[in-house]
Design a protein that fits this description.
CATH class: Alpha Beta
Strand content: 15-25%
Bound molecules: iron/sulfur cluster
Helix content: 40-55%
CATH architecture: Alpha-Beta Complex
Distance between the termini: 27 Å
Number of domains: 1
Radius of gyration: 18 Å
Number of helices: 9
Length: about 220
């Protein structure tokens, strides 16, 4: 079965059918142009944020066909963590059928702190399950995480090209720790949905919140 990625897990939390469609009918996703623009802006912000601690290593690796080379990213991350490198970006981990690439891992005396980059001027609760999943995968892979942060844009500094000036780190460790309870069951449920029959879920509020679903056209076409 396909690896359970962070995106698939977050989609599962919003609507199990969204995860199922990600796995079985991804070609049905329709991404609106404004959302595509937001995603591109987010990627640019992520690139800038990599320099938040100065020098860094980035695990991102592509195959010849342009797709991400997960195996190479996992291997690079493993080596760099074993060497005790201070800052590793797009650090890839896999354990028990789960996969994630952390935006930034920064070494402290006793562990690595986890930073999730968000291109917004404030912290939102919907970011927490995302960070909690990453922490769960990374610790399941045997790497100790100390604190967890959301690195979001500082109000009034949206256009700054200086990472320290542009971003502010918000400590979400306690909230993320609270989401550890029940994680095993949620992951098991997500994997069961991914490997099962198409869930029969009617359209509803979950199609818009917390994120607009890319499968609305599909679900409206095949209304229950
Ligand atoms: S459109 Fe609504 S029902 Fe369909 S997958 Fe998305 S969230 Fe679920």
């Amino acid at each position: 079965m396909a690896l359970l990625t962070k995106t698939k897990y977050i989609h599962f939390l919003q609507c199990p059918k969204m995860l199922w469609l990600d796995v079985h009918k991804p070609e049905e996703a329709v991404i609106p142009p404004e959302t595509r623009q937001k995603l591109d802006n987010g990627n640019a912000a992520g690139d800038l944020a990599m320099g938040y601690f100065g020098k860094y290593l980035e695990a991102t690796t592509y195959k010849e066909d342009g797709k991400l080379d997960f195996a190479a990213m996992l291997q690079k991350t493993k080596e760099w963590i074993a060497e005790g490198q201070e800052t590793v970006c797009e650090a890839a981990f896999s354990a028990y059928g789960m996969y994630c690439a952390a935006d930034i891992l920064h070494k402290t005396e006793s562990a690595y702190d986890l930073y999730e980059v968000k291109n917004t001027v404030c912290m939102h609760e919907v970011f927490l399950p995302d960070v909690a999943f990453q922490r769960y995968v990374i610790e399941s892979a045997g790497v100790k995480i100390g604190k967890c942060y959301v690195l979001h844009t500082r109000a009034g500094k949206e256009d700054s090209l200086d990472a320290q000036e542009r971003f502010v780190a918000e400590d979400v460790t306690a909230a993320v720790r609270a989401l550890r309870r029940g994680m095993f069951e949620r992951v098991q449920n997500a994997r069961a949905v991914a490997g099962g029959e198409e869930p029969q879920i009617p359209c509803g509020e979950q199609c818009e919140y917390p994120y607009g679903c890319f499968y609305k056209e599909y679900c409206q076409k095949y209304k229950l």
